[in-house]
Each structure stands twice: as C-alpha cells, then as structure tokens.
Amino acid sequence: MFDKLKKAFGGAEEAKAPKAEKKVEAAPAETKAPAEEPKAASAKPRIGYIHLSGCTGDAMSLTENYDILSTVLTDMVDIVYGQTLVDKWVHGTFAEEMPEMDLCLIEGSVCLQDDHSVQELLMAREKSGLICAFGSCAMTGCFTTFARGGQQAQPKHESFAPISQLVKVDCALPGCPVAPEMIAKVVVALCNGDMEYLQPAIDKAACNAGCGCDVLTNIIRNGLCSGCGTCALACPTRAMGFSEGRPSCDRDRCIKCGSCYAMCPRAWLPIKRIKEETGL
Amino acid sequence: MVLGTYKEAVSARSTDSKILDVSQDGGIVSALLCYALDEGIIEGAVVAGTPDEDWRPIPTVVTSADEVIAAAGTKYSMSPTLSALKEATRQYGLEKVGVVSTPCQTQGLRKAQAYPFTRFVADKIKLIIGIYCMENFPMASLDTFATAKLGFDSLQDASKMDIGKGKFWLTKDGEDSGLAIKETHGYEQAGCNICMDYVAEWADVSTGSVGSPDGWSTVLTRTGDGETVFKAAVDAGLIETKPMDEVKPGLPLLEKLAKGKKDKNGKERDKRAKMGLPLPVEY
Q1: What is the pLDDT of residue A26?
Q2: pTM of the predicted model as reported, rounded to 2 decimal places
Q3: What residues of chain A, 176 to 235, have a C-beta less than 8 Å from chain B?
Q4: How many CB atoms within 10 Å of residue A69?
C-alpha cells in the first residue's frame, strides 16, 4: 500500500517550483528495503513521529483515538521513531541513528535558530518515504508565527517556520490540534491505500501559510461565499464573526491555523466521498 | 436525478395549530424538530431565528418546543447557522444535535462529517432537515424590495414575508403586496449564483412549499434516519400526509425549478471558469 502511496505522491512532485537550492527529496527508492512483495510481518508500515515546536496537542489528539489505537499500534503499524511515543530520538549529540521510515508525522513548526530541530527535520526527510505536516504548526506555522524571540532559555529562537520551508512535504493535515476523528479517518485511508480520501491533504502539501483572511481573499473576494457559517464552526479561537452574512476575522484572535479555509465547502467539496458515506 | 436521491415524496402538514399559526407553510420543520426533541432523537437543534423580530436571521440553539415555535418561519437573508453548532456542542453540551439547513449549509455539514477537522462536533449531528432554497438576499436587498419597490416606509412594517406563485410577498396590516420575482433578480447574493442544489440533496429529509397546495409542504425523505423520523412523526399523529400525485401543482413544478436552478447556475459556473475565476474544487 505504501508503494502505491509513494507512486502517487511522486507523481505530484513536478508541480513544485524550483527553489534556490533543491530541497531534500524523499529517500531513494533503493533504501526502501527489499520487501517489494507484501509479506505479513514486514508489510507493517514504519511510522515516525517528530515533535518540533508545538504544544503536543496533535500527539494528544492522536492518542485520543483510544478505541482504535491499540489495534493500530499492535496490528497495523510499527512506530519506529519518536520521543513521546516510543522514547527513541536523535539526541543533541546525534550519536543515535534515525531509522528508515515509511511515513514520518511531524508536529510543530521548525525553529530556524535551533540547529537540532533543523537537523532532525532534514534527517527525517532523508530517512522517510513520506512526510506529513501533522497539525497546523507544521503546516502553516499557526500561532508560532507570532514568536518574536527574546525569551529564556533561548533568546535567539525567534523564527518558527512551517516545515515546507525546509523540506518537501507530501501531505498536510491542518488543525489546532488535528481532530482525533480526522486522524482516525486518515489512518484508515492510509492503511487501505485510499488515495482519493487523502488527495485534499496531498494537494495542500506545499502550504506554508494560513489565516482567517483566507476566506476573505479566496472565498468572498471570488464571489463564492454563501454565508453558511462553516468557517466559524471550524475556528478554534472563535476569531470568526459575521457581518452582513459574511465571515469577518478578528485578527487579534486569529492564530493562523488555516482551519476556516480548510473547512469551507466553497473552497473544496468532497462530493464523491459524501455520496459514499451518506448513500445519497 | 434533478431532486437528488430520495426514498419518498409526499405532501404534508403539521396537525398542531400552534405550529401552523406561525409556520411558513406546512410547519414540517417545526413538527419534525418538536417530535425529535420529544423522543430524545435530538437534544437540541441549531436554526435561523429572529430574536429581535427585525427579519435579520440569527443562528440560534433551540432545546424545547416553545423555542422551536419562537424560531419558526422562513428568513430570506443569510444566517451563518452552522457557527451555532459550536455553541450547541460546547456551551450547551448537546450530544445529539439537529440542524435546519439550506442546501449550501447541508454541503458544509456533510463535508464536516466526511472530513471532521473540528473535533467532536460532526459526530453529534443526528438530524439534518434541509430546506429548499433558490437564493438568499442581503438585508439591504430586502430593504430595497420593501421601500423602493413596494413603497413601504420600512421593512420593519412587514408582518410576514413569503415567496410563492412567482412573487415576493410582504404583508402589512393584513394586506399582501407582491413583487414579481424578476424584480428581485440581481439582488441575491453572488455566492448563490454558482449553487446547483435547490432541494438540499444531501439532507436527511428535505422540505419546502413548492409542489404542494397553500398551507402544505412537499417532503422528500432521503436517508434511512430521515425516513425513520418522518414516518414516526406521521405515525404519532403530528404530521398528516397526502400522496404527491393527488396534489397540485405536484412534483413536476419542483423538478422544473430544481432543473432551472441547475441550468442557470451551471451557465454562471461556465462563465466564471472562462474568466479564469475559481470555483470550489471538487473531489
């Protein structure tokens, strides 16, 4: 199933505009083990979880899927890397080696002044088949965008960037935090190789910004808004109010997570999936 | 299928005079909400109310029959109703929520269920009652209809607002004034011009006046849940029904209007695409 995923992700690479220096791409295919044949034991995808600059909310959301978590962890995936989940991570000395991963979930933005974070992210790109920006901090920078540095114990730490600034991302899941149900549905889709379900997240892979203004510039300004209220439902900080039937973002409350625009039915609409789920 | 997937189409009316006194047409939305609340199918619902009785819709959480009846009647301006789902699930702590939604809102709800980006909200939506909708008007457009076109001193003088029989109606001092629908064209919000859904095709049960006689509503049951609730409300004696083929003007009119909306707005979509303007990305 991950071969299928990789192929699909690979196909979308060309669309990216060339940057000053080529970003570290996915691990070369040869390193992806000789297990071309799907074998029961070795077919379990190797998952990594890297915690950069975020509040651990996304990891907590992941673990909130109590009902499926034990099955996922025992039967469906191997978590091979992660400080919080398996107590395995590359320490500051880099003495320990990062294992090969099929998929690496990355929570949090990357602090450009923190060499360890930068190195861990770049290393993860080399070691992982797929990188998922897991949660808004990794995807858009979210509230870490407002960091200004000047704080103990690292006054120099001021630039917290979405991870797509440094590495090629394969798919992105917004949310502050990502909703537990969303994580469960993505896990199921991943395990089933359900590309169609993941496509919106794949299409958002290169995303590096989000804001309440997105509904203004992309929806209202394009004559698409119907005033339905989904954006206000999506907003985790209640920054979205309404004026004349149109969303109006309170920028002092907006944390730039991008949830409002992701939820807007006039931004994108999963027609096929809705029909499948409802039978309509 | 121009009316979307549905199990059954019937003409129906509430049997409760308290509902019929305030309802727009057959009182189906209010009757279904009251029944679902009574039976514990839902603990509350989010609807478009007008707490200030000034025709300005405000998303409202209702948890009792009295509150349902207080919010009854169609509003012809935008209500960001789905925003109140957060209030319903977080402040009110409701575990089972009903929603009264226009077609565009139904799309937002179904998308939120298919891609639940907002934690612990979508799973609490237990009943989606869709209402037929051709288009929606900014408040300033309604003011224009009342003052500039119908000669009212103020929109606030109107005691009832309705669209039917080819006209936009305002009632003042018991007297109805009608404005030809084509006089309202160009006053609807732009977002409505690309909508291809007239009959809330993704709701559990959809309803509206078109197709049925005055005082009655045309009901389309769509999902198993929608069918179950509607049939139970009928069995409980809260709703009376007539077969669609026994009423005038009947289903053909509903189909004609639904197709008309798709044709007209399909052209608008083509036009926008040709200009290089974006449309919702469809997956």
Answers
A1: 55
A2: 0.92
A3: 177-182, 185, 196, 199-200, 203, 218, 222-230, 232-234
A4: 15
